[in-house]
Design a protein that fits this description.
Distance between the termini: 97 Å
Helix content: 25-40%
Radius of gyration: 27 Å
Length: about 290
């Protein structure tokens, strides 16, 4: 009788040990899955989900485009939405920091084809020859002085649009320098810029067969600053020599959205997005 009772107790102890080990293994498995797949664990908080979204959707990146050819090209310090039909970017966006403004890499001036694009849609530097237009940077070389890689990438032809020479060298350059001054004085800026096409069909340049590069009618730039008092503003410049002051080309982000059909700063809180995008206050930016 005692032998039978001891045998039963041994089985109970063994079963308890098996259940304990299985429970520990199960918890470890769930923890590991949660570590590999962000947001897959039911206990994830809303705050954690927001942080995950912020990591994957940078503030400077617009919402997904609709009805527009879009090849996404992630570079080391900027993102390009490339239009394989117009053969120039839909937009280029980047984060400009004080550190990047203070970079010491020298300007390369080496324009080159972007090998990430298929050959049929790959513009090269010589496609602009004799066109009368400059190879106009969207993300400027002056914002990419932190590393040689970033500098070289800024001269890739996917970051370039046909731009009026006077605009490129004067008013547009002034806006680029102003953005660097803001980043140096205020901190991080979130920037998106690109071409605006209002004429149909667009004027084109390029001599190679099938290589017709659309010439923009204007250019936009939107800028967001989140430090201190958050603020945003847009700029629109016609693709021609532009007289006057930088304030003459300042508009609200809402106006740029109306002209382009793009949805900027989508990762902001909806209420804050509406407030910031509806204002145009150059004085708040010191201009």
């Amino acid at each position: 009788m005692n032998r039978t009772r001891k045998k039963r107790n041994s089985w109970k102890i063994l079963l308890s040990c098996i259940l304990l080990v299985a429970g520990v293994m199960g918890l470890n498995y769930l923890w590991a899955c949660g570590g590999r797949h962000s947001g897959s664990v039911a206990m994830a908080t809303p705050a954690a989900k927001v942080k995950a979204k912020e990591r994957t959707v940078p503030l400077e990146r617009p919402g997904k485009l609709r009805g527009v050819p879009e090849l996404m090209l992630q570079k080391s310090q900027f993102l390009i939405s490339y239009n394989v039909e117009r053969l120039c970017p839909n937009y280029v966006c980047w984060c400009l920091t004080k550190e990047r403004v203070g970079g010491q890499v020298k300007r390369s001036n080496h324009f080159h084809a972007d090998l990430e694009v298929e050959e049929a849609s790959r513009v090269d530097y010589f496609d602009y020859a004799g066109s009368g237009y400059d190879r106009g940077h969207m993300c400027p070389a002056g914002d990419c002085k932190l590393t040689k890689v970033a500098m070289d990438e800024s001269f890739g032809m996917t970051n370039i649009c046909p731009q009026n020479h006077d605009l490129n060298m004067e008013a547009w350059n002034e806006l680029e320098m102003q953005c660097r001054s803001w980043a140096n004085n205020y901190g991080t800026l979130y920037i998106c810029c690109g071409p605006i096409f209002s004429k149909t069909p667009a004027q084109t340049i390029g001599r190679r067969k099938g290589m017709r590069i659309a010439v923009p009618d204007a250019f936009f730039k939107v800028v967001l600053m989140m430090r201190r008092v958050p603020k945003a503003m847009g700029f629109v410049y016609p693709n021609q020599a532009c007289e006057g002051d930088i304030r003459d080309y300042a508009v609200s982000v809402d106006e740029v959205e109306r002209l382009t059909g793009f949805d900027f700063f989508v990762n902001l809180d909806d209420k804050q997005e509406r407030l910031l995008e509806g204002e145009c206050n150059p004085a708040a930016w010191g201009i």
